[in-house]
Amino acid sequence: MASSVISSSPFVCKSSSSSSKKDLGFSSFTKSSQISIHRCQKKSISRKIVSVMAPQKDRSPGTTGSVKTGMTMTEKILARAAEKSLVVPGDNIWVNVDVLMTHDVCGPGAFGIFKREFGEKAKVWDPEKIVVIPDHYIFTADKRANRNVDIMREHCKEQNIKYFYDITDLGNFKANPDYKGVCHVALAQEGHCRPGEVLLGTDSHTCTAGAFGQFATGIGNTDAGFVLGTGKILLKVPPTMRFILDGEMPSYLQAKDLILQIIGEISVAGATYKTMEFSGTCIESLSMEERMTLCNMVVEAGGKNGVIPPDATTLNYVENRTSVPFEPVYSDGNASFVADYRFDVSKLEPVVAKPHSPDNRALARECKDVKIDRVYIGSCTGGKTEDFMAAAKLFHAAGKKVKVPTFLVPATQKVWMDVYALPVPGSGGKTCAQIFEEAGCDTPASPSCGACLGGPADTYARLNEPQVCVSTTNRNFPGRMGHKEGQIYLASPYTAAASALTGHVTDPREFLQ
Amino acid sequence: MATSLHSVNHALFKSASTSSLSPSPVFRLNSTTAGFNFKPLISSSSAIITRAAVSSSESGESHNRETFHGLCFVLKDNIDTDQIIPAEYGTLIPSIPEDREKLGSFALNGLPKLYSERFVVPGEMKSKYSVIIGGDNFGCGSSREHAPVCLGAAGAKAVVAESYARIFFRNCVATGEIFPLESEVRICDECKTGDVVTVEHKEDGSSLLINHTTRKEYKLKPLGDAGPVIDAGGIFAYARKAGMIPASSSG
Hints:
The complex is a heterodimer. Chain A is of the alpha/beta class. In chain A, the strands form five sheets. In chain A, strands 1-12-9-10-11 form a five-stranded mixed β-sheet. A five-stranded parallel β-sheet of chain A has the order 5-4-3-6-7, covered by helices on one side. In chain A, strands 16-15-17-18 form a four-stranded parallel β-sheet. In chain A, helix 6 links the parallel strand 4 and strand 5. In chain A, helix 14 crosses helix 16. The N terminus of chain A is likely disordered. Classes of the chains: A alpha/beta, B alpha/beta.
């Protein structure tokens, strides 16, 4: 679809017709989407887009003559989990849950409510479908935080919970064979994410697992307490917004850039109560970890869940980690989508989200005058093995030392080990850890959520002063990493690494091309 | 211990009837000047108290949500959960009464400097404000229930926002901690912190926000699908009424 329209205005195409995958021309919506989604105008923009994208009710009959109503992936997953043959957006249904995840912050409250409502002697609905993953406030002297892990241990013992990734020796994470780290990464690594299933977690970034073609969303303690007792939850079927990302991914671009691009496009409330379904040739080329990064930040657009159709990449990852049978589902050709966005990924550039909102999008290269005080690479969003590999690759290509403190927090034990063991391609056999050391980064820390959400005062890399930080994490609202006046620029691992080398927000092309 | 997915966990029947439940620590047991009526849904031995008034037993349709008056606290758009309750307080467990009290004392501590009024005066445990008025996307961010819990624990009775983030809204509904109402216009631009307001619920299910200080009235949106769950008093009460989970000991 090359045309002069592409060079002058974006790569975004919005369309109101969504029943087929035919190529759509670039509409005049590109102009309106260029009216940047700054917060002061965001409201009117999002209203405008939503009102134009009327749900498609009337469809011409399928050529096969079938009268079956098409459903999206999410609708199909929920229908099956509710033992119904058909659901439509807006239906309130009771859904069977395949996996419930909780961690140290919300687990005690969820179990507390479970006991209060079902009785002190109550038993969970299925001790093999609950995964308890301490990860938030682990390596701290905070007594309450430590108490919470102990409380979870008691509950897991009493209920015979099969999957409890416990930690007892806080001084040496490696001494804990069961401990994993960040829940969303651990869920995937341990084979708990399977296409077609319903996964709930007491954490907003549970939507990460949608990368596996399942329905995955975050819930609170009370809902979790309910699920603990019944294995069911009341859900409202969300309509689906489709995001088709085509084109070849530039070498300096990562999934983080894609999702920041999208959130900047539709705003932090652009997908509220909706599913974000990602497909297209670019998506097909992404690794599972990159797909996880994409789905991870769906909640930052207000999305209920994110979903990517499972393919060979998905099956290869999943089948190596679990023997539980599963059945993937896919959106029907005649399914209804409430909005359609198309991106030509080859035209995109590295972006950041400026303080203080994930939708405050700007090109990284346009922020090159922003002086920064530190860089943080970690979290479920940007602390996986491939995220560290990317940062290491850039550091190695640059051959320089960082100009600001650069904190590295691997998400899980496995990621930590990869950082120390796996050779970085093109570096002559060096590991990430070696490259990080040569670049002058801080030593990779104990795996956990770390400073992504601030945490107790003694949390490693917490923002305790009003500093400027480039971070591979997911939110940058005031106070997110600790200090209320801290300024957080959300970025990809490449952008974070490049910024560390210059001491300013920096486009990774400075070092990668 | 495998239970059929088709049936409710039958182990619950046994445990619910033989155990004695301690009083629900989350829901407020004392109403202050004016508040929602409390009425146990289940027998007094379980002492589960709900915040919102219970629907009458004859018809499942009617509701008697109480009207209340108080001061309002005005916020703008995108108030995320870390501003409502900074993540460092996430070590407190909302289902433990003393922790819940403490959460209340820290409510809205994360607000940046541009908000000159404190929702809870440092040193105090409760707020003098009953109604929180917000803009778009109220409660965005985390799924941590500490957010609606701290507001309810601090004494707030309702949020009236232009729109909500879904997990926060859902948590308000499930816990019954605070009534989530939606305005039709941008009330946060027309009200000031400290204005005296009334939230009035009408027979037909609609609600009204009356600002006595500015002498303006605002129609609020009906609760929609969340209505029955809110009226029942939260997800557990609703599920019991719907027969999804067993009522605890009868009589």
